[in-house]
Write a sequence for this structure.
């Protein structure tokens, strides 16, 4: 899979600043100990001379080379022991002067065996997810703030109790976010306007992003627009931006597509939608789609190909109750 250059650069910069901070702290500790316990500075100087001596002996043909090596090893162990005692005796830990690394796997290099280390991947995902700020604008979209009291406690015309239904929808969404990406389906948030679909998808997005996965959010119209711009403006700045956006949508760990059904449907946008849904499914990447449309409306509008994919791979979460947008007014 390809990586988005801008986000990758940001991620590398973050890792580099951590590395630099660790190095500065390492140097500060050395200066501190050398000032307070000068004997440690002496020992370190001797240990360095021993290293040089060891390198010299490795290539030497002197007759007593082995004896010299043995003596060197003995001195070395004694010095190390004395150093450790001085550190511990002065109230510090034995490894206080060791090199400091935040990621023991890659030692803050960002790479292991030529591959991106999980620590860098985390920063990379965080950089991608910064685009989410539009969805998570006022910070209130979290599960704790999802208010079930806004849903009526009385059965509706069909005999369903909105609060009971939404209690289950909320519980399922929390489980989904906690288990991500080990989840067996995509989610289709279905229901009338103002019932909290965008709100709940933002709660899921935040929870998943906070666990270090990359999350993209777009309204369906904005998403399809990026596809069309990419198609018609291959060159130039808008083309490059759209290209990047499309790649993110296809490759992010979780894609949230809001307001399916509100887009202007043309053969071009319909095929872009199909590409988006189908590519993600084929690559085992999870998506959450919200819509005002019922099953009948979905199949009527998008035809059997897309509809069967939505129904087959998506778990439908029903949103019922009274328009919260109107209630809040
Ligand atoms: N469970 C909830 N707790 C607190 N606030 C909520 C809840 N559900 C919705 N809201 C608020 O009500 C308003 C409408 O919710 P939201 O935008 O999520 O509805 P929607 O289902 O996405 O509607 P539409 O189909 O029109 O897009 C928003 O201001 C949202 O913050
Ligand atoms: Mg909405
Ligand atoms: Zn690492």
């Amino acid at each position: 899979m390809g990586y988005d250059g801008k986000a990758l650069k940001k991620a590398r910069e973050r890792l580099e600043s951590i590395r630099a901070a660790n190095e500065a702290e390492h140097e500060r500790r050395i200066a501190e100990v050398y000032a307070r316990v000068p004997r440690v500075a002496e020992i370190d100087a001797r240990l360095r001379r021993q290293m040089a001596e060891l390198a010299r002996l490795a290539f030497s043909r002197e007759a007593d080379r082995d004896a010299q090596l043995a003596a060197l090893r003995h001195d070395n162990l004694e010095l190390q022991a004395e150093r450790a005692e001085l550190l511990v005796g002065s109230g510090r830990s034995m490894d206080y002067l060791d090199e400091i690394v935040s990621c023991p796997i890659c030692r803050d290099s960002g790479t292991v065996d030529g591959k991106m280390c999980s620590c860098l991947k985390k920063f990379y995902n965080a950089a991608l997810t910064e685009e989410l700020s539009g969805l998570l604008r006022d910070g209130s979209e979290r599960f704790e703030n999802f208010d079930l009291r806004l849903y009526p406690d009385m059965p509706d015309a069909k005999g369903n109790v909105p609060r009971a239904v939404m209690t289950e929808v909320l519980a399922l969404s929390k489980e989904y976010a906690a288990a991500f990406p080990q989840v067996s389906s995509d989610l289709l948030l279905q229901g009338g306007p103002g019932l909290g679909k965008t709100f709940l998808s933002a709660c899921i997005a935040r929870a998943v992003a906070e666990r270090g996965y990359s999350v993209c959010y777009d309204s369906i119209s904005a998403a399809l627009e990026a596809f069309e711009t990419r198609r018609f403006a291959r060159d130039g700045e808008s083309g490059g931006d759209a290209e990047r956006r499309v790649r993110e949508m296809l490759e992010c760990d979780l894609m949230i597509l809001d307001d399916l059904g509100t887009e202007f449907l043309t053969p071009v946008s319909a095929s872009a939608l199909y590409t988006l849904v189908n590519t993600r499914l084929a690559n085992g990447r999870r998506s959450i789609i919200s819509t005002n449309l019922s099953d009948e409306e979905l199949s009527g509008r998008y035809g059997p190909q897309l509809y069967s994919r939505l129904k087959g791979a998506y778990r439908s979460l029903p949103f019922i109750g009274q328009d919260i947008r109107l209630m809040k007014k």
Notes: Residues 300 and 307 are 9 Å apart (CA to CA).
